[in-house]
Amino acid sequence: xxxxxxxxxxxxxxxxxxxxxxxxxxxxxxxxxxxxxxxxxxxxxxxxxxxxxxxxxxxxxxxxxxxxxxxxxxxxxxxxxxxxxxxxxxxxxxxxxxxxxxxxxxxxxxxxxxxxxxxxxxxxxxxxxxxxxxxxxxxxxxxxxxxxxxxxxxxxxxxxxxxxxxxxxxxxxxxxxxxxxxxxxxxxxxxxxxxxxxxxxxxxxxxxxxxxxxxxxxxxxxxxxxxxxxxxxxxxxxxxxxxxxxxxxxxxxxxxxxxxxxxxxxxxxxxxxxxxxxxxxxxxxxxxxxxxxxxxxxxxxxxxxxxxxxxxxxxxxxxxxxxxxxxxxxxxxxxxxxxxxxxxxxxxxxxxxxxxxxxxxxxxxxxxxxxxxxxxxxxxxxxxxxxxxxxxxxxxxxxxxxxxxxxxxxxxxxxxxxxxxxxxxxxxxxxxxxxxxxxxxxxxxxxxxxxxxxxxxxxxxxxxxxxxxxxxxxxxxxxxxxxxxxxxxxxxxxxxxxxxxxxxxxxxxxxxxxxxxxxxxxxxxxxxxxxxxxxxxxxxxxx
Length: 543
Ligand code: VG1
Ligand code: CO
Prior knowledge:
This protein is an alpha/beta fold. It has 18 helices and 27 strands.
């Protein structure tokens, strides 16, 4: 077995976005594509020599092929050890945990997350640093720069390694440990949550439906919810990871998880419903007959986290991504703890978590997490909800109504215009950016613009600045419009329009969000000219 050096040439477009490098699977399958990106990653982090990496993915098409290449390249680049999930499987939060508990130098996660999988769909690679979190922009930028000058990569030429059984192997002088993907993660969950109380909840007849969407969380949910917490078999549906996620779109929102939504809104709905995404870091929460927006979920979890043993001492602070509704800020204010507003993407929470400034973090896109790992964590959010439901003994609907009665309701919706012309979408944002100064004071129906800016974030820990993170337009009546372009798509551009309005009147808490937000929706169209720029009459997806 010998390490060989191959000549290569830079490949264009290997620029990580909001969360790793995502492209069509067939692009990743072109010659040297994976090799170039991995060598660039190793080079950008000062080499792999003597280092330990955690490696795993969400099981989508091309998962194991990519892992075999990465292992051979890690060996050729002098890595000391790789820890790999059995079958090449690791959820994103479980990988984050493994990096931390094993003191690894970093990790490579193979996933395009909520994007569909399969030979004709998407694949992705994310690099995580030693804290277990997504590489910060300084690192992803260094990786991208390296991809533009790369001339060679190193790889060991050998047979594929057996990843199907747990145990220790060697590969070209590097040791490889194949671990159970669920074990360490399940142990962490049992430490954070009151498993006895949740077990009693299920024993008392509480019913739940967890839709793993044919993705990575299946094995985790089967083990934790059914085997350890005693939920009846059948609680977890679509629980076997499939390379193309059963042909579905593993994005847990009311549109793509409509199967679960129908069940939860039907006659014999279970007490509690949940779903997670391709790589297991997102969550959707639904009660019988009631959907919980991710922004509300973050706020409810912040207000109730102390009911779980892992958070009994309270929270240091709460952080949310900028487009996420400001419901969590109201909770933080009441608790007397800081509230942070960061750009979209989990990498921006890392420093706040490492520095102990924030305990809970969340995004409107169905990501919630805490300082237990450095990624958002789908099943963790579901377990925290279960712990709260077990302690409070109320339904999801009652808890949500209680919450709104205390804090008001932040009506919220995101409108996505997918696969639109990138030039036209960018021109629309640029045009809007040029008009921001003239917006305050202008009126749109009953709403008046109070302030408008292009969000720029200065990290309170390391002082790094991330500019142009989205347009914020704050209006009267607690309304707000945010617009930005997605950084995870692989075709054209996706325009995201985030809409929010506060309602304080309890008699108006049960409205359809689209209707409650209609003034805000009209204002967004009047301000930005979305229809003209996208050529669409309506958004493709409303969540
Ligand atoms: C989207 C979400 C963002 C999330 C990111 C990665 O990014 O909006 O909140 O952090 O996906 O999530 P964008 O740039 O497309 O809006 V995951 O679960 O796909 O890694
Ligand atoms: Co994800």
